Amino acid sequence: MGRKDSMLVTTTPPAFEHDGADTALAKTIAACEILMSDIGEASMRTVAAQALDAYSRLDGGGKLSFFRHVTTAYDVDPDQVRATFHRWEQLRNNGSDAGEELTRLFAAVEPARQQLLRLLNHAPGATLALVEMRSDLRRLMRHRPELRPLDHDFHHLLTSWFNRGFLRLDEVTTDSPPQLLRQLLQYETVHPMATEAELSRRLQPPDRRVFAFLHPATGELPLIFVEVALVRGIPDRIAPLLAPGPALDPATADTAALYSINNALDGLAGVYFGSFLVKQVIEQVSMQLPHLRQFVTLSPIPGFRHWCEARALDDTAVGVLVDELATIDDVDQLDAAHAERIRARLLPMVARYLVDERREDGRPIDPVARFHLGNGAAAWRLNWPANPSPEAWRQSYGAMVNYRYEPEQLERRHEDFVRRGSVAVSGPLQRLRASS
Fold it and tell me: Which residues cross the membrane (predicted)?
């Protein structure tokens, strides 16, 4: 090893307490260079740990410099890709066996960044550190599209490292590890909790359940979790599910309402395991309570208000309704007749937004709709006013939607959605669309 190698490869990572940002950046980059050289596995673990330790000491500017360096320094070699492709093409056109050259082509088109991330993952606790690194990258990438290739590499590898075979479904209770309970408090963003008493309300009563996916690399940190309320009938308002009150005897419930689903690690954004969670939760609750007849959600509609306001300038009816909604200070104080007049005009617009409005790829524009419809659920009923909180009013004027999960229909609806972009609609929403 050269002088730089011997400086970094030691029995324990060096102390950087007095290093400046430039020194930490230099050591992070140098450790990555050594990792990509030919070193033994024992040294690899030590150098990878040093690289991640040095990275942890970078400020925002240092992290941005590091990501820019990795994106450019460990990109594909276009000359090698071009030459390998031409050799493969010549062999194939000549009728020769091109399998070995195709393997070389696969290796050539894979950015060296992916190998660097694999090597960094040799350090103890590295998988979670790399998830957190991607979270840093995603924050910095919002206004720096040149970093997207690196994010693609992260996503590619994390999808493999966090595949369904490694996940474990646990029911969360008040006896779960404290770190897991703290994560639920911190990462509940759909219906935030401010106190441990609120958390207990969602865990402790016999008519409440919380389930989480865990992974060996993240310990007691949940990847994604879902909160379930056992109720009679399909809920049309969120308040009764969140407010303290007498618990329902689970034996008298007929419906399991999944009212909050949260990703707990931003670094795993786009790593898709939500459908596995929902289906497994339904199976688990069904085994516990086989008498339940319905599995539904009470879901937010996060983009609806923005969509309405964007169309208010060109659509007089939408503009009039948007202006009227802007005058409402407390939706719960509306008299019944006024509320019904608004509901009659609002719900057809919500239906159009959820079912008809599409992205360029043919999928619904609402992200929550894409999630549940992609899981095989059907959009079942629109509810207004369902959530009077300021955040819900900002997102959707307080409207919410029930998606219904019917186990015998999930696979067919999922296939129809994936293959043809079909949006499954049933129940009251289907009747609303027929009458509009």
Answer: none
